[in-house]
Amino acid sequence: MPYQQTQWVPPHSFQQKRLRCLLLGINGAGMTAAAEILNDAGHTVFGMDAGNPTPFPSRNCAASNATSWPADAAAASANSHRFHGTTLLNWDPDAIPADLDVCVSTRAVAADDPLTKALAAQDIRVIALPTFLAEIFAEHRQLCVAGTHGKSTTSAMLTWILEQAGRTPSCFVGAHQLDVDCSGRFRTWASGEPSAAASPLAVIESCEFRSSFLEFAPSVAVITGIERDHFDCFPDAASEDAAFAEFVARAKEGSVLVHRADCSRSVAVARQFFGRSVSFEVCESLEDHSTDSRADWLASRPVASGLSSRCELHHDGRQYELRLSVPGLHNIHNAIAAIAAANAVGVDPEVACQALGSFHGIRRRFELRGHYGGMTLIDDYAHHPTAIRETLQSVRQAFPGRRIIAAFEPHQHARTTALFNDFVQSLALADEILILPVFAAREQVSHLECCRASGRLVKALNSGGGRAFLFASLDQIVSRIDHSGKPSDIFVTMGAGRTNLIHDELTRRLQRNSVA
Length: 516
Hints:
Its EC number is 6.3.2.-. Residues 145-342 form the Mur ligase central domain. One of its GO terms (molecular function) is ATP binding. 33% of the residues lie in helices and 23% in strands. By secondary structure, the chain is an alpha/beta fold. The strands form three sheets. The protein has a ten-stranded mixed sheet with strand order 9-8-10-7-11-12-13-14-15-16, sandwiched between helices. Strands 3-4-2-1-5-6 form a six-stranded mixed sheet. The protein has a six-stranded mixed sheet with strand order 17-18-22-19-20-21, with helices on both faces. 47% of the residues are buried.
């Protein structure tokens, strides 16, 4: 879809004028957050999605009037539904609201879609979500969290720290935050005219996909780590690294870069940064590092126990105790990055550590979805081998001695093929693996090839002594769990696509059984 990259509304107009905004792809996590930001600022928001499924699925909304769509597209304006302040409309040119100021769209919308053509015919400006966010937060001090893994959780942790420190930031996070009950929020100056010293803060999850994060101008930039990913955007590691280098080069004067010290690619990017660079790392003990080689923020003695984790945090000659209410050693890395970023804007480390003790996570990140037939249900967004490994290790640490059944939907054929051996090694950590056909998403790959790619995963896992099965649909996995699951099992779904819907169906079955 062609985007106009010119400024659509100056930031001061955004605050002074009430706008009528249409968001395309409203069911996506990013557009959900954008809708919340706009609603928070008092604007009129309309949303459309080509799939017309349950709106804002991350909220698990059960209200019937919020989950149905108008049956007739021509009657969309009259019979539209509102969800958290957003009017939901059918995906149809006839449903385009009158007098729109701007349309914000995902890049997945095709240029030849009838809706796209109708918007162009009406001379309605259409811009990409990152451009829109850059304009909204242009006068904020932007705390931009980038990296291959942990962006959403680190952004949510940083938002919660600032919230508990009395800073009440704006935020854009790619998942629903349980503690602040939103994924997007808009805050401006408390009173009087804005000034550089009093500029409000905005925590922005900043994705490298198609170099989207280059729209932002960070005052604090965070790189949680860099691994190969987004193979349809970056043909090699060098092009990926160049994008991250450009991201930090766009930082404002006097900015701070927070980066992971044990990630060589992050360190290489940090060496090109013109501002102050701050490193963080997690190690077993201080004896592992000489004083000269230590990171600026060093976590030692990390322990993951049950559904919590803890460590000792060392910075500037002081030691702090960090206790998290979320599981997994990877969350200690996320927490240290968030603490360092918060400190860059003046938050005391002790305050930050205390705040994270009451942080309860985000949706689809080791999300406990309840129980079914005595089984414990967990949903996670993991779709990269590293994230899968960390998730399954966390499950094993939290529930030792229990059988782990993992359902996985590979996301994108290119990623599945390029990281094939890594996927096999990570998935093998589960006792039983139920694999769906690859979810191709934006790729032009046949369903047959998606099935074959997943079949190769199953074959490789079984050849290595694993127990893996290929399933054609979510319904088949639900039936498998319904009939073969045991009361002591841990059932974890993983993937960036639709595997979370398995839990929705299990919940419906529980509700039907309770009524019967």
